[in-house]
Each structure stands twice: as structure tokens, then as C-alpha cells.
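Could you help me review a protein record that somebody else here produced? This is what I was given.
***
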Amino acid sequence: MGILGWGGRDARLARSTLAALGRRFAVAELAADGTVRTANGAFLAALGKAAAAVVGQPFQAVFAVDDTEHLWRAFARGEEVADAVRLKGTGAEAWLQAVYVPRLGRGGRLEGIVVYGADISAERARTAGLGQRQHEADEAQGIVEFSLDGMVLAANPVFLKTMGYRLDEVQGRHHSLFVDERESRSDAYIGFWRRLRSGLHDAGLYRRLGKGECVVWIQATYNPIFDADGRPVKIVKYCVEMSAEALRAVPAQATVPVPGEAAVLDMLDSAALRASALAMDAAIDAAFAEQRGQGAP
């Protein structure tokens, strides 16, 4: 039987393309009404099911997509659609970074769809775990955003409680609100902000002043945030208050890692998920281009 009713040279081209992509990605073929016609081993592995339990099933029984009507209108226009999709009926969360490729026949009639997907279940689970750990870290540490010139843009409740302020009392004020006047005029303090504005990170144990000029010792990191061109745009500070007992245990000049900082840095790894999706799209494009260039045997 031809692939989705494709015949002749197109069928041979489709089969060779599917073979090339099927060695690397999950592939499923759908009829025009969404019924699953075939599914390769990688697709079945992602679902955790045998072919007999998948082939012949309607689209909605396999793919967790809310707006199938919108999706099928795009297919009818011959539009390829890329999206992360959750697979249904699995024992655990199963996700594919998928590209749907519709095939139109005579008169522009939709004849079928081929779904190419990369299994991103592990990446989704890892990202969800990082998000949860980051949420927990945010609940345990103070977070403040500053403009490059040191003005408070935002502050979370933990920081405000530590320093004894309300948000409206610090937002729009300069960081020097939290240091004594002598320090704010010092070369060291001026240099501190000059380094942050230039994109340099700073971390350590800091003496700060809360509301009413009460002394608060915090362990903190000041982290420049960059735009797409690599230019610093703001500073984000993560901090925890140090108790008297903790201070006595800290050797002179020593620094203590901020709880949750590793989770913050690990969030950068979510870029790998985006890179994986882009690589899949590029591979599909390359496979189609190669097959069309070579022609069917």
C-alpha cells in the first residue's frame, strides 16, 4: 500500500525521505481524518505501546491537542505546523517536539499528514523539576532587580521582609538606601557598581542597612543580565540573611554559596531543549532538500 495514497515518483520520494528521517526521529502517518495509519519504532517507544494499540486510533486518542479544528484548517491549506505535543495514554508524561507535514492531492485536497517528532519527555520533566526547585528557591531567598544605575526595579517579599520595607518604600530608590552614607561615597562602592554595569558578577558577604538603619548581614550574588547582543540591561541580586550563629562560623573573607543559586544557573540548560528542536527542524529540512535534489531512484 502506498504511503497515504501517494503514488509513483512521489511515493518513492516519500518512502526514501521517511526512511532517512525514521532512523533518527519518531514518525507517524495519519490519514486525512487523523486516523493513525502507521507509526515507527521511535514513535511507539515514546508512547510505550505496541503498533496494534496505536494504528487505527483517531488523532485525539493519541495526541493531546486542544484545538484540532484550527490544526486541520492549517493542514487543508498545506501549511506545515511545528509544536511541542503531549502523547496520550502513556504511563508517564510523554512529549514530542513535532513537525506536522500535510500532503495535498489533486485539487488541493488533503490526503494525509506525516508527523516527525523528537522525544523531549526527559527534557520536559527536567525543566519542570528545575522550575519547581527554582520556585522553592525563590520562596527561600531575597531577590531584587536593579537598573544599571542601581535603582530598585522590583523586590520579592523575602527581601522586603529581611530589610523591613514595603515595596513602595524601595521601588525607584537607589541601592545606596541599604548602605550607610560613608560607604555610598566610597571608591569601593562606586567601583562595585561600575563593575556590575560592565557585566561583571559580584558575590560575597555584605553588611547592609534595613529600615530604621538596623544592620543586616546577607550572603548575596549580584548577577548582570544581558540582552541578545550581549549588553548588560539590569542586575539581579539573590540573597539570604545570615544569622548570628552563621556569621560566627564564617571565616574572615570567606563566602558562602547562596541556596538555590545552582538551580538558577541550571535553568540556562533549558536552552538545550530549544537547540534540540531547532536541530530537528534543520535535519528535516536537510533531508527533504537532499531527497528532492537527488530525485527518486
Residues 3-124+272-294 form a domain with the Beta-Lactamase fold (CATH 3.30.450.20). The two ends are 19 Å apart (CA to CA).
